[in-house]
Structures are given as structure tokens and as C-alpha cells.
Amino acid sequence: MRTPEELTELFRSTGRKVTAQRLCIFRVLQGDVTHPSAESVHALASREMETISLKTVYQTLYDLAELGEIVPLDVGTGMTRFDPNVDDPHHHLVCRQCGRVRDLAASFPELRVPEGADLGYQVGSAEIVFRGLCPECQPEVRGRRASVTQVQT
Amino acid sequence: MRTPEELTELFRSTGRKVTAQRLCIFRVLQGDVTHPSAESVHALASREMETISLKTVYQTLYDLAELGEIVPLDVGTGMTRFDPNVDDPHHHLVCRQCGRVRDLAASFPELRVPEGADLGYQVGSAEIVFRGLCPECQPEVRGRRASVTQVQT
DNA sequence: TCCATTATCTACAATGATTGTTGAAAAACA
DNA sequence: TGTTTTTCAACAATCATTGTAGATAATGGA
User: Residue B120: its chain A contacts at CB < 8 A?
Assistant: First the structure.
């Protein structure tokens, strides 16, 4: 995602106004790698601006999404998450315990819909969600993590 | 998914009661390949039993999920979808226009998290959602479908 | 078959995430 | 600085889903 300064520029140049609230949200998102929900962006922003409303956060997040600066993401954790990493094609790691989401920096160019299996769909993209346990949620086995299990695909 | 008769058996043997509503829901799910939402199961069931409540549908769907007969699925269409196909490992095709969901009967045993990209996650499974246009939503080009585009992964 | 037990039913209210509305306030640009 | 237009915060409303409660029905045994 771009810096708050670049986003300011971008907002102005697209006829959007740049307010203290928006700058605050830009700052919160900057470098956030945890794919926050609107709620958690609001919680962080509230630390700087107590009166900022959740509505404003949603609004700004969807403005950013419209400009292609972040991507709304639904990985089945009940809320929409926002991914500020739009530059590198990537997939996602989701913790099935705590819901933590991280980017998986890899592409899978060999991934194809097998011949005849497409049911007539004109497929344009694929998203992979890898599910497992994040480092924090793993049971410790004699001081280190339990052995890695086989990926079921 | 099992037949209504088998499900009746299964429900009884797990201390659940078999009611007319439940049988109706079993019948509706039987052979449904479109991954219906609770709402659409309710709509179909209502054709046979006008008074059946949405709550009952949810309840029965989650009973079936608990018994492993169907799988709740979130593919980002705003509602939970239910997949009666639990026997064959598979992934999903989602229409980005109408939200139609279909099974993609294929497994990708070669799909691995690249060495060092797992960020410490202990990955156990992967789900792939292929997005595109279903046959009904495709623009027609001189009588037949437009050419297939490249899958972006 | 009939009873007693226990689960399930429907109707209704409540939840949590998200979106709509409105008048007040603030940013942009002349 | 003034005017225009957007955005703000507070509040109400929505949608999918879940909780509650008393009425009802399925089950298993007498």
C-alpha cells in the first residue's frame, strides 16, 4: 500500500477530501500485515481519535478498495478483512484457531482447471486459502513445534 | 450425501428425532448440486410445507453438518452455502456475477506451501476457489462462448 | 396402543456486521 | 475569506443468523 502522503495525493486527485480521520486510517493501515477487519482498524484509529466513527472507517476502507489500494477479503472468519498488499500476487494462510490471516507470498502458475472439469465456467482467477495453526496457536512439543502435517488438497 | 432413508436411520441412531420437516429438508438437499444457502433450502422446502420455519432449516442443516453429511461453505457471497458432497475431495467454482457455486472435481496433490513461505503456520489443508463466469452469465460471441481466459494465480 | 419423556417445532426477539440517512462541520478551490 | 461540495458522527435500519419459550410431536417402554 502507498504511504499516507501518496494516498493524500491520490484522494485529492480523485475528488475526495482528505480529513484528519482519513489520515489517521491511512497511518493505521500503513505496514499492517495482519489483514485487519473494519472493527480492528476502528479500534486502532480510536486510540488517536476517540470520536472517530465506525461508519467513517468502513467508508474510507471502501474508498481505498475502489482505488485499488486495498482488497476486501472474505476468508470465512465472519467479518471482511482488508489486505493492503495489492502489489504482489499472493494467497492466504488462515489460522483455524484464532483467525489470524497472513499473506503467503507465492504464485502457483501450474495451477489449472483440469480439462473438462470446468463445468462451462469461464475461469479467470483462483484464490487459495491454506488453513492451519499459526505459531501462537500451536501446541508445543518438547520445546518446539509439532511436526508439519501433510497438506490435504 | 446419503438418501433420506439413510439419514433417518442416522438421525435416530444419534438420538435425534425425525420429523416431517426434516424429511422434507433431506429430500430438498438430495441431489442438489448448487450449494444452496439456508434461505434457498427454506424456499424449496416451503413449497411442500408452507409453515416450515427458517430456524428449523438452519437447525437441521447444522445437525447434518455435525454428522458430517454436508459441509458449510463460505465463498464470499454473503451467506453460508451448504455442500452435500463430502465424499469426493474437491474445490469450488464460483460465478462472480450470480454467485452460483459448483464443485470442481479435482485434487491438486502437487500443491505445496513453498519452503520457507509458511510464516510458521502448521498448514493442514488448502481450499481453492476458482472465480469466473458460469455458462448462464457469459456474454455470447456469435452464438458461442467467448474464449477462455488465462487463470491468474 | 397409550404414556411419559425428551426433542423439535414455530413465532418472536436479539445479535453482530454492515449500510442508509441526516443535519452539522470541515476541506477544497476560487 | 466565501462558497460549494464532501465528509463527519450519531442514529436507525438491514441482512444473515442465533437465542428464547411455550406448544407440539416423535420415541421407547409399559
Answer: 134-135, 145
> According to DSSP H, which parts of A49-140 are helical?
54-66
Give which of A105, A103, A113, A80 is closest to B132, Cα–Cα. A113
Tell me, rounded to whole angstroms, the distance of Cα B50 from its chain centroid.
24
- Residue B43 to residues A65, A78, B31, B35, Cα–Cα distance (Å): 34, 24, 16, 14
Cα B134 to Cα B4: distance, rounded to the nearest angstrom: 30
B10-26 burial, b at 16+ Cβ within 10 Å, e below that, comes to: bbeeeebeeeebbbbbb
- Contact indicator for B44, B36 with CB cutoff of 8 Å: yes
pLDDT band at A92 (very low <50, low <70, confident <90, very high): very high
Across chain A, mean pLDDT equals: 93
Is the Cβ of A55 closer than 8 Å to some Cβ of chain B? no
Give Cα A20 to chain centroid, integer Å. 23
Question: How many angstroms is C1' of C23 away from CA of A133?
Answer: 49
The grid coordinates listed for B39 are 434461505
Which of A82, A94, A125 should be substituted to probe chain B, the one whose Cβ sees the most B Cβ atoms within 10 Å?
Answer: A125
Q: Which residues of chain B have pLDDT under 70?
A: 142-149
A104 contacts B122? CB cut-off 8 A:
no
Is residue B94 helix, strand or coil? strand
Phi-psi bin for B2: left (phi > 0), alpha (psi -120 to 50), beta? beta
